Amino acid sequence: MPEAETKRKRGRPKNDSPYASAARMVYRESTPRDILNKEAMQRAVSMLGTNKPNNPYIYLHSPSRIRQTILAELGRLDTAEDMRVFADTICKDKVPTGRAVAAIRAYRLGNGTPDADVLERKIRALIDDYVQRYPDTDGRFIGRALDNVRDTFDPV
Hints:
Helix content: 55-70%
Structural class: mainly alpha
Order of helices and strands: HHHHHHHH
Number of strands: 0
Distance between the termini: 62 Å
Number of domains: 2
Number of helices: 8
Oligomer: single chain
Radius of gyration: 23 Å
């Protein structure tokens, strides 16, 4: 069974970075996921300098509140410049945690690129749902609606 030797091991890869070892020492009773999150958060804090006295990112790391989820997601970005760009926007606009994390993940994982096939499938599903609710809908009506939408995004 030579195929089994080339297969990737199940589970998360072992992480021996300095941030991870520090997180393991401080948070001994944490799960592996907690350790990864704390490591990413520590990386963001050190790269952004949010623990400094003149903290420009007070929204993310103030004495009364640390936005751990956002910091952990920022810490997963590759470069300090990317972290700063996102942190500046998040702090300036006071973006809620859910939206901030979703935006960072979309950028990090590459989900931010448009895909015409995906959009087409979503539009078709929406039209199918509409036609099921309103069976008398005809093709001309749907065509007019789609023309109006197209004109909104691409005025002639």
